[in-house]
């Protein structure tokens, strides 16, 4: 069992717990090294770090950046970032800024399918109004009796091809990786299994092209153990990690009690042969500043 959890969300993005509540829960669940990785926002890190210190838990600054690559939306987790690195701050601000416009369009689309008041309804669930997400719409749609749970709302309304889905252009892959790398962090391809399933999912060939480009841009790790992976996918992405010489990461992707596939911590061990992403950090004692060395992007970065 791993006592690292390097992917989770607080109410600074689409989680339901405050950063401090999240850290308390991680401590109870035996997590020894935690990264908070809110979507497109780093505002929860100070509170989480302070809470982690109270528990004697090592804390790693993180964020999960939304990226558009070809026809796909990808999530790139940055670990050990410096949250005040100006290009990262500015980049995250630009990614967040598109969300309110998208939310209006989503509400308009939902209204066309007979669901009124979704914009106000979703904002009621968004503790951070700068970070309105599909999850907040999903919670409102459950509350208003459209679906029994968040998962069914996504399947029925909020994914590609469904009535409340609005296409959106997020950050470019090379930019997101550069904000992370430039700030001293390690870029991790989050939950790759999700990009290969469902309508419009990518095949092996495209996944290989993505990994090659991600690495050319300075990406260094891939989530192998993820709350959204099956055990077969742990093995599958451990093989990709080996083939592409990527470090392996692990995280629950916890969003809140009763809502996530997986609770925090207690993640299964990596398949044999995985080199853990924390090899890129030197955890000298708790909450210490960590050094990371990532080479600069190569010309194959940004070819799409
Ligand atoms: P957004 O960044 O606004 O597009 O929202 C993406 C978030 O929606 C993800 O981070 C997940 O928390 C959630 N999500 C996406 N797909 C699903 C799904 N099929 N079931 C449940 N939650 C989902
Ligand atoms: Mn989320
Ligand atoms: Mn994600
Ligand atoms: Mn996530």
Layout of strands and helices, then pairs:
Blueprint: E1 4-5, H1 19-28, E2 33-36, H2 45-55, E3 58-69, E4 72-79, H3 86-112, H4 118-125, H5 134-143, H6 150-158, E5 171-172, H7 173-182, E6 186-189, H8 204-217, E7 221-226, H9 231-244, E8 247-251
Parallel strand pairs: 1-2, 2-3, 3-5, 6-7, 7-8
Antiparallel strand pairs: 3-4, 4-6
Helix pairs in contact: 1-2, 4-5, 5-6
Bound molecules: adenosine monophosphate (AMP) and manganese (II) ion (3 copies).
Structure description:
The chain is an alpha/beta fold. The protein folds into 2 domains: 4-96 and 171-293, TIM Barrel; 99-158, DNA polymerase, domain 1. It has helices at residues 19-28, 45-55, 86-112, 118-125, 134-143, 150-158, 173-182, 204-217, 231-244, and strands spanning 4-5, 33-36, 58-69, 72-79, 171-172, 186-189, 221-226, 247-251. Strands 1, 2, 3, 4, 5, 6, 7 and 8 form an 8-stranded mixed sheet that branches. Helix 4 crosses helix 5 and helix 5 packs across helix 6. The radius of gyration is 18 Å and the shape is globular. Residues 14, 39, 66, 133-135, 150-151, 154, 255 line the site of adenosine monophosphate (AMP). One manganese (II) ion (MN) binds at residues 64, 75, 190-191.
Concise structural overview:
The protein is an alpha/beta fold and 304 residues long. The chain has two domains: 4-96 and 171-293, Metal-dependent hydrolases (TIM Barrel, Alpha-Beta Barrel), CATH 3.20.20.140; 99-158, DNA polymerase, domain 1 (Orthogonal Bundle), CATH 1.10.150.650. It is built from nine helices and eight strands.
What about the largest sheet? 8 strands, mixed
Element string (H = helix, E = strand): EHEHEEHHHHEHEHEHE
Number of helices: 9
Low-confidence stretches: 284-291
**What percent of residues are in strands?**
5-15%
The CATH class designation of the largest domain is Alpha Beta
CATH superfamily of the largest domain: Metal-dependent hydrolases
Structurally, the number of domains stands at 2
CATH architecture of the largest domain: Alpha-Beta Barrel
Can you give the helix content as a percent range?
25-40%
CATH topology of the largest domain: TIM Barrel
User: Which structural class do the helices and strands define?
Assistant: alpha/beta
Question: What is the rounded distance between the termini?
Answer: 37 Å
Count of extended strands: 8
């Amino acid at each position: 069992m791993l006592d690292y959890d390097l992917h989770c969300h607080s109410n600074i993005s689409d989680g339901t717990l405050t950063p401090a509540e999240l850290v308390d829960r991680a401590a109870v669940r035996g997590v020894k090294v935690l990264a908070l990785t809110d979507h497109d926002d780093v505002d929860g890190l100070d509170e989480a770090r302070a809470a982690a210190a109270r528990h004697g838990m090592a804390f790693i600054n993180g964020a999960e950046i939304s990226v558009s690559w070809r026809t796909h939306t990808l999530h790139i987790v940055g670990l050990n970032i410096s949250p005040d690195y100006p290009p990262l701050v500015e980049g995250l601000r630009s990614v967040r800024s598109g969300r309110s416009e998208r939310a209006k369009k989503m509400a308009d689309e939902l209204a066309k399918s007979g669901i009124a008041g979704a914009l106000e309804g979703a904002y009621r669930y968004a503790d951070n109004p700068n970070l309105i997400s599909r999850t907040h719409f999903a919670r409102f749609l459950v509350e208003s009796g459209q679906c029994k749970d968040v998962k069914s709302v996504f399947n029925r309304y909020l994914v590609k091809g469904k009535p409340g889905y609005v296409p959106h252009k997020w950050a470019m892959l090379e930019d997101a990786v550069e904000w992370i790398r430039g700030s001293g962090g390690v870029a991790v391809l989050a939950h790759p299994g999700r990009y290969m399933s469902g309508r419009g999912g990518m095949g092996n060939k495209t996944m290989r092209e993505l990994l090659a480009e991600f690495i050319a841009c300075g990406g260094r790790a891939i989530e192998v153990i993820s709350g959204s992976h099956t055990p077969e996918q742990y093995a599958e992405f451990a093989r990709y990690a080996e083939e592409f010489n990527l470090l392996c990461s692990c995280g629950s992707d916890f969003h809140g009690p009763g809502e996530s596939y997986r609770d925090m911590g207690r993640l299964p061990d990596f398949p044999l042969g995985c080199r853990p992403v924390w090899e890129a950090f030197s955890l000298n004692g708790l909450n210490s500043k960590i050094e990371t060395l990532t080479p600069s992007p190569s010309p194959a970065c940004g070819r799409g």
